[in-house]
Amino acid sequence: MVHTAGTEKNVAFAGLIVQEERQVATDAMRQQVAVRRERPANPAWDRVFFCAMIVVLWATVLFGFAKTYFLAGMVRAPLPNLLIHVHGAAFTLWMALLTVQIGLVSARRVAWHKRLGLFGFGLAVAMVALGLLAATDALRRNVGVNGLDAKTFYVVPLSAVTVFAVLVFFAYRARRQPAAHKRLILIATIAIMDAAVGRWPVAALQRTPQLQDVVLLGFLLLVAGYDLLSLHRIHKATLWASALLIVVHMTRVPFATSPVWQKFATMMSGKG
Fold first, then answer.
1. Which of 135, 192, 250, 253 has the fewest CB neighbours in a 10 Å radius?
2. pLDDT in tens, 182-233
3. For residues 261 and 139, is the Cβ–Cβ distance under 8 A?
4. Which of 163, 189, 209 is nearest to 58 (CA)?
5. pLDDT > 70: percent of the chain
6. Residues 102 and 149 reside in one and the same domain
7. Contacts 24+ apart (CB under 8 A), 13-17
8. Are residues 6 and 46 in the same domain?
9. Does residue 184 sit in the same domain as residue 232?
């Protein structure tokens, strides 16, 4: 009887070990599946797509600012003051940095990419500060665009730089998740394309400013379309970042006409 009981205990113990081993193996398989899902179907497509998007955004910036900034000599461009010069230089440096970062990833220099990424985060912080200062400077110079008075228009640059700040922050947090990180950085850059698109010498865009939002929506659709082709789903970072940008664009001008915003803008203009 004692021998039988001992044997039953041994069998039960062995069964427990086998069950635990199966559970560990199952958990490991689930983790591997999750990692595989996070990776694109073809890494080479990733490099091509994100390189192409940087080219598209560079074209957007050059088309918008060629006459007033780049072809005017940048440093010698007739901008309102030194702050706007520094602001323009910082945002141009951001575009140059993205180009270098994409090149480093394509060349598989990931360690260099990570080191330079710390500089990029610092640059993004400086850009947010400069964006806020430049927007307030334009408000105080009574600059209004697209048929909006200066106080109402103030919401446009402020909202753009705020969305940029939020997305860059989360991109930094997701720096160990390449798929999410690169999408958040890309959409953050799309968020600050307002000024460039608004300066495109296209009559339809100037007559109907709402079409400028359609251009940015087109950029977001390119990202979502690529996700569907490469991942067979839209990445969650693409979904929530795009949703944030769309909601802000739909609500910012109506909100800027409210008494609360008008009072805030009056205070920031120094006339409150």
1. 250
2. 999 999 999 999 999 999 999 888 888 889 999 999 999 999 999 999 999 9
3. no
4. 189
5. 84
6. yes
7. none
8. no
9. yes
